Amino acid sequence: MVKGVKTLNEHQLIQEYFSEIGSAFLVEQGIRVPIGDDAAVISSPKGKESVISVDTSIGGVHFLESMHASDIAYRSVSVALSDLAACGATPAWFTLALSLKKYDPKWLSDFKKGLEDISAELKIPLIGGDTTKGNLSITVQVGGYVEAGKALTREGARIGDVIYVTGCIGAASSALDNLRGGNLTRLDKNRYLRPKIRFEVSSKLLDIASSAIDISDGLFQDLDHICKASKVGAVICLEKIPTFLSNSLTIDEINRGDDYEILFTSDKSKREKIKRIAKEENIPICEIGSINEGDEVDIFSPDGVFLKASSGYQHF
Ligand code: ADP
Ligand code: MG
Questions:
Q1: N or C, which end of the chain has less CB nearby within 10 Å?
Q2: Atom of ligand 1 nearest to the CA of 21
């Protein structure tokens, strides 16, 4: 039901903006009943496990309402997908629960364009959702598959493992500053508006990584989640953290979040394999530290000084 969104009936709105997104991929993703019925029906591939996650993006918190509606849509789906990548899953479908202040056809068709872009990029259809009236809020549920028993979790880090990170850190938060200041560069688009999720790399890490997490709230904070789940500690060399600038960033700059890179641990014996993946996918994968017997994240400056981690993004 479109609760209270007037001037267009609910059926027409869904039909016009949502029902066709990614419909070309329904068959290959095993969607037997798509949008239009009470629920989607999915046939799961043999030998695989389903991986499911949901994320809500709120205007002013997770994106700026001044952003182009197509970027708002793309980013909202992208950040939800990041959790699937962290598990090493391959994405298959998404649903959308959308709350809108008013019926605005221009905004909605731009929004639709962003959904189409990410849907086409990853071959994932939109298979259901809900539309309500209220402050702009976008909840995206994503589903995918991973070979049974192989999903990456936060739990498996072992003492002596190497800690790696994909891509570079701090670029998204600097892009957000540029966006707020009204001087967005072309590169900022990928960094903040349309983050690219590392599915190519993460799907190759299934037998290689011992634990993994996506960096949403800040590198040190997210690494701490691995440490707590795996009951280990970590030691990080600040100068090894790859940044998009030639100069190194401060701990606070590194920990601002929104990077949507993959942070993972792996046994030393897998070093060469990881180098090969980085080369094949043309994505930097840097060693930034190692796992130890402690219970927290210790950071060292280039001259060996112990530094205290900031707390990263706090939701409350
Ligand atoms: P119900 O009342 O049975 O929950 P709705 O009338 O809300 O169904 O929705 C009708 C169909 O349209 C359902 O298949 C639902 O999944 C889909 N749908 C509604 N809103 C959206 C949306 N924002 N995005 C994608 N699909 C949607
Ligand atoms: Mg129903």
A1: C
A2: 25
